[in-house]
Each structure stands twice: as structure tokens, then as C-alpha cells.
């Protein structure tokens, strides 16, 4: 909103029917031209709500272009405008209007809203229309009572949900400040209620995040305001009985007991149930194990396997990713089940930056949705995308080349090397800086890729090169060649060098999924790529973790851990004459079985990515389904170029 000088400038422009030069305005107000230019920009933004504009001319200055009716309305506004200098954004105005309607028992006029927010009635009416569109999706309306004003209309449950979801976009700190300033509850009572609920939840639910704790406090304060108006939540009896089964219901009742200290009357059981919903849907900092979590863990493992398959990035051993997804999904399931929205303020940025990853996650959430009877919205999908994006960054950080620096002349020289390396090769991480006489101790250091030394190193188990401390051009060339060779080793072989003709079997009968895995593993054992026990390990993985290896319609990729008997990177392909069932509701029956054996978590990724790309292409997948050996090998060869 305009400050005092800007309002004066607005008044001056209204009265002037010709151009005014900026330096004249600056002199009139005794400010710099830069300041007056900023003031003009503010005025220009302000008049857009009146469908008006400023005409600018480099030589003549600025002039207001506004019709008489709009001029009259602005002049009236200027007469009543006070010293209110904070300009609310359209979103903040919507939340403020909803908050005002939320707490007022009687209809509220547009003039009242205009006075509170220091905007014109026209702006208020525009905001009300936008708010009405938002509330419609929550089955809440804004009813206009003739000559009285506006009032919310709808089920109390929907009204509270709509306000909580919209205020999430405002930020809970701002929402709490707004409550202190505007609610018809004494500020002392609000602060005391906050402190008591905080202590209770820190004792009963210490795993809650600060964001979740603040959200529950805000919900409690808003509920108290509505209860003072005799507005209570009505939940179906079967939902209440379901919620009573959770420990969080008892915590909800304790919160209600705290609220009753500030209420005028007894608070009903439905309110405790509604608070229980918020507790269940709140983010926590740790994973709490129970039977439902075990089922969720299995579904998360399948989701990770599918994303690994489609992306060509092996997330299977990332326990941090698995735990992070479980911790996020447990409250998310309750949020989605009971329509308690959680806004993701970064969703547009996440969609733009991780578009493909977000799509893969969207495609593979069907099992979780079916199991829990929910449907993921874009906000929650983007939260899940962030977990996978973080896992990718962790992988990338592990791909840094680790180097030990050694110097025979002194530690100062090697520190110079370290500084120059950091500038010239940011992909190198120096793990240890030591003098030459301590090199023997460093040889036991795990994880180092190379030794860079100022003097020749003999009989080292770690590859080494000798370089000048100044890291001259020829030294830079040496280092670059080492990094290129390392990258070639890490990227792994192409698909045609792994999925060879001797590992392909077409139109083979199998009794069941276990027999299909045995058939796929047989040529790998015969060529000594894996030990016989590896086949049993692949079967055991499916038995223990479910059909997560079924990664797409009709496609499965059984595998086990490298230490279970993998001698060399390998991949076999079996096309079954009759599809078999692995127990996957969505993607059974399976006809294409690829048995994978990898020596580590990275070597197979290049070939896997190429195979995934081929199977995601309709014609290539059709070749695997119906083509002969020659056609399949040609498809594999073409995929190896990707």
C-alpha cells in the first residue's frame, strides 16, 4: 500500500492534467530522483487495480491516464487512507479475508474488509471472487446477505480444512502473528494456550517437526475461536471409532482439555477426533515401527525398485531414501485420506527442475494409492520427488575422486598443491595430506582413488602419479587422463556387452515365477558369471520383499546383492511361452524376465539405463515380446548407442 509521500504524489497526479518531470517531483519532495522514481513505480502498480496507467515520456515526465469515475473513487480512498504502509499480496489478502469471515459470527461488509486491509472495495470484490473459486473446490461457499454483507456457508469440517490449507501457503509464523492481531481472543490467552500445547506435545510426541507443532497450535487456536461461536466439527461415527484406535487420540483429548481452560463450555469428542487427524497427518523426525509401517515399507521398496528400473539409477541400497520416504508417507497418507492439504511452496520449481523424475514417481504410486485408498496430489508428489532428488545428489557426492596428497619436502608445499587442485579440479576431494615418510600408514586408508605425490611412490596398492607442486600444464594433463579412465570404469559396459546371445532364451515354458527365475539364472551359472547360490538368493529376495521386481507390465528383473555370489556383471533374458504370476496386482502376468547380477552398485547402471530406455519405447518392447533372436539382438545393439 502507498506510504504518506506516495499518497501525496497520487493526489498531485490526480489534480494535474499534464506531464510532470521527475526532477521537478524530486525537488518538490526534497528527495533524490531515484527515490521519486521508486515512488512513481509504486503509484503505477497501485492504479492497475483501477484499469489505469501512467503515461511516461523521457523529455516531459509522467502523466496520469485515468477516467473520471476511477479518479473519484481514488480520491475517496485517499481521504480515508491512514498510515497503513504494508502492501498485502493477493494471496495474503485472500487469507486475511477468509480469516475475517472465519471468526465473524455476523456477515461482514466489503467496506469493513476494505478498511481492515486498506484497499479499495473494488479490490475486495475481486479478491472475494478469487476466494470463492478456491472455496468451491472445498465445498464451501461465500453467501451474500443483502444489505448485511458476506458470510461463509458450508460444513464446519470443510470450512476449517479450507482455511488450514490456504494458510499453509501463508506460512505458519505469519498465520500465528495474524491470529494474535485479529482474533477475538485475548493475546495473553493465545500465548498461554500455545505454551501449554507446546509442552504437552514435546512430552507426548517429541518426534514432531517444528513446522508440524506450529500447525497444530494454529489449528487449536482457530478451533477455539469457532467453538466460541458454537461452531463444532461433525465427523461420521465410523471415522471417530477408527481414530480412537490410535494413541494420538488420547493426545488429542489432552489438547482438548487444555483448550477447555480457555473455552466457555465443554468441548465435544468430535473436536478431539479432528485434532487426532492433524496429529496423524503431521510430519515427524523419525520412523515409528508398527504393523502398518511394515506394509508401507514393502510398498516403498517396490516404489524405489520401479524408479531404479525406469531411471537407470540404482536406489535399492539407499536406506536413507527408504527411511525418508516412510517418514514422509505415513502422515501424508492421513492427510490425503482425510483431505488435510499440505502446500508445497516449491512445487513449480520442482516440476520444472525434475520433470522426468516427477513423472516416474506419478506413474508408480498406484500400489500405495490402492492399498490406502488415497490419490496423490501434485504437492505430495513433489515432496516425494525431493527425496529422490536428494538421493541423486548423495550419489553424485560419492562419485568425487578421492586423493591422498604426499610431499617429500614439507607440508607447506603439499598445502599449495591442495589449493591449486581445488581450483583446477573441483571434482577431486583431498582426503588426506601427509608427508612422504607417513605414506605407509596411509596405504591402509579405505576409499582413496589415487595418490598425487611430489616424489615417485613405489610399491603402492593405490595408483599414483608424480606431479609438480605448481601443477603445471603437463601435470594437469596427467590428472585429466586419470579422471577420464576412472569415469570410463565407473560408467560400465554398454548393454550389448552384458546381454549377450548366449544369455537369451525365447518361448520357454515355466511352471511358476520361481521356475522362471531358475531358468533365467541357469546360463549365468553355466558361464560362471554367478554362483549357483545366487539363483536361490534372487528367489529369496522376492519371497521376503514381495513382487517388487515386477517393474512394468509383463516385465520382471529378479536380482540379489553382489555378495550373494556374483562373479562378473551379467544379464540374462527369458521370454516365457506362457506368462506367470509373481503376485503383482497391476503388472502381472509376467512374460519377460531379465535376471541381473552386478558386482557393485554402479557398474551395471549404463546397461540398465539403455535397457530401460528400450523397454519404454513401444516398438522395442514389442520386439522383446514377439521378435526372433536376430531382431532382439539388433534392438539391443541400437539401445547400446543411447
UniProtKB/TrEMBL annotation:
Pfam families referenced in this protein's UniProt entry, alphabetically: HTH_11 (PF08279), PRD (PF00874), PTS_EIIA_2 (PF00359)
Keyword hit for Transcription regulation: yes
The PTS EIIA type-2 domain, residue ranges: 497-639
Keywords: Repeat, Transcription, Transcription regulation, Transferase
Domain PTS EIIB type-2 intervals: 401-491
Gene Ontology BP annotations: phosphoenolpyruvate-dependent sugar phosphotransferase system; regulation of DNA-templated transcription
Superkingdom of this protein's organism: Bacteria
Span of domain PRD: 184-289, 291-398
One term of GO molecular function: protein-N(PI)-phosphohistidine-sugar phosphotransferase activity
The protein, known as: Transcriptional antiterminator
Organism per entry: Salibacterium halotolerans
Amino acid at each position: 500500500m502507498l506510504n504518506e509521500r506516495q499518497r501525496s504524489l497520487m493526489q498531485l497526479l490526480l489534480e494535474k492534467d499534464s506531464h510532470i518531470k521527475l526532477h521537478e517531483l524530486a525537488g518538490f519532495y526534497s528527495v533524490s530522483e531515484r527515490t521519486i522514481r521508486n515512488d512513481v513505480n509504486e503509484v503505477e502498480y497501485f492504479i492497475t487495480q483501477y484499469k489505469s496507467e501512467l503515461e511516461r515520456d523521457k523529455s516531459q515526465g509522467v502523466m496520469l491516464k485515468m477516467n473520471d469515475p476511477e479518479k473519484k473513487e481514488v480520491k475517496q480512498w485517499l481521504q480515508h487512507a491512514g498510515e497503513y504502509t504494508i502492501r498485502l499480496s493477493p494471496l495474503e489478502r485472500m487469507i486475511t479475508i477468509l480469516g475475517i469471515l472465519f471468526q465473524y459470527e455476523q456477515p461482514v461488509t466489503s467496506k469493513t474488509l476494505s478498511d481492515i486491509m486498506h484497499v479499495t472495495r473494488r479490490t475486495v470484490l475481486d479478491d472475494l471472487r478469487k476466494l470463492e473459486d478456491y472455496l468451491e473446490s472445498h465445498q464451501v461457499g461465500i453467501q451474500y446477505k443483502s444489505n448485511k454483507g458476506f458470510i461463509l456457508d458450508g460444513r464446519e469440517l470443510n470450512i476449517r480444512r479450507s482455511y488450514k490449507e490456504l494458510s499453509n501457503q501463508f506460512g505458519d509464523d505469519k498465520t500465528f502473528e495474524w491470529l494474535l492481531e485479529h482474533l477475538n481472543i485475548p493475546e495473553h490467552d493465545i500465548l498461554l494456550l500455545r505454551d501449554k500445547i507446546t509442552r504437552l506435545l514435546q512430552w507426548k510426541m517429541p518426534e514432531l517437526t517444528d513446522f508440524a507443532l506450529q500447525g497444530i497450535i494454529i489449528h487449536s487456536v482457530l478451533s477455539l475461536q469457532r467453538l466460541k461461536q458454537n461452531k463444532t466439527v461433525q465427523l461420521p461415527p465410523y471415522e471417530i471409532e477408527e481414530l480412537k484406535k490410535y494413541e494420538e487420540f488420547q493426545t488429542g483429548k489432552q489438547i482438548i482439555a487444555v483448550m477447555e481452560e480457555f473455552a466457555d463450555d465443554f468441548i465435544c469428542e468430535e473436536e478431539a477426533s479432528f485434532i487426532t487427524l492433524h496429529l496423524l497427518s503431521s510430519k515427524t523426525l523419525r520412523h515409528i515401527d508398527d504393523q502398518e509401517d511394515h506394509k508401507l515399507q514393502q510398498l516403498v521398496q517396490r516404489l524405489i525398485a520401479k524408479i531404479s528400473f525406469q531411471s537407470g539409477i540404482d536406489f535399492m541400497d539407499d536406506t536413507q531414501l527408504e527411511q525418508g520416504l516412510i517418514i514422509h508417507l505415513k502422515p501424508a497418507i492421513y492427510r490425503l485420506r482425510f483431505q488435510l492439504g499440505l502446500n508445497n511452496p516449491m512445487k513449480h520449481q520442482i516440476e520444472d527442475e525434475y520433470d522426468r523424475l516427477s513423472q516416474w514417481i506419478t506413474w508408480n504410486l498406484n500400489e500405495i494409492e490402492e492399498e490406502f485408498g488415497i490419490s496423490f496430489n501434485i504437492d505430495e508428489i513433489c515432496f516425494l520427488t525431493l527425496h529422490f532428488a536428494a538421493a541423486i545428489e548423495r550419489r553424485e557426492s560419492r562419485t568425487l575422486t578421492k586423493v591422498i596428497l604426499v610431499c617429500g619436502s614439507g607440508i607447506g608445499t603439499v598445502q599449495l598443491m591442495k589449493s591449486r587442485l581445488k581450483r583446477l579440479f573441483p571434482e577431486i576431494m583431498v582426503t588426506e595430506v601427509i608427508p612422504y615418510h607417513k605414506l605407509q600408514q596411509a596405504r591402509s586408508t579405505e576409499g582413496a582413488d589415487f595418490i598425487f605425490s611430489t616424489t615417485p611412490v613405489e610399491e603402492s596398492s593405490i595408483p599414483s602419479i608424480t606431479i609438480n607442486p605448481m601443477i603445471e600444464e603437463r601435470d594437469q594433463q596427467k590428472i585429466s587422463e586419470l579422471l577420464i579412465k576412472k569415469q570410463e570404469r565407473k560408467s560400465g559396459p554398454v548393454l550389448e556387452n552384458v546381454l549377450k546371445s548366449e544369455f537369451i532364451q525365447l518361448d520357454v515354458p515355466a511352471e511358476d515365477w520361481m521356475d522362471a527365475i531358475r531358468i533365467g539364472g541357469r546360463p549365468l551359472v553355466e558361464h560362471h558369471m554367478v554362483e549357483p547360490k545366487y539363483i536361490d538368493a534372487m528367489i529369496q529376495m522376492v519371497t521376503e520383499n514381495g513382487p517388487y521386481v515386477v517393474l512394468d507390465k509383463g516385465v520382471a528383473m529378479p536380482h540379489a546383492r553382489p555378495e550373494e555370489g556374483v562373479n562378473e556383471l551379467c544379464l540374462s533374458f527369458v521370454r516365457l511361452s506362457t506368462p506367470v504370476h509373481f503376485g503383482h496386482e497391476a503388472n502381472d502376468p509376467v512374460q519377460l524376465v531379465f535376471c541381473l547380477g552386478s558386482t557393485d552398485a554402479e557398474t551395471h547402471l549404463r546397461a540398465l539405463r539403455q535397457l530401460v530406455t528400450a523397454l519404454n519405447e513401444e516398438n522395442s518392447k514389442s520386439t522383446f515380446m514377439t521378435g526372433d533372436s536376430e531382431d532382439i539382438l539388433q534392438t539391443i545393439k541400437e539401445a547400446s548407442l543411447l
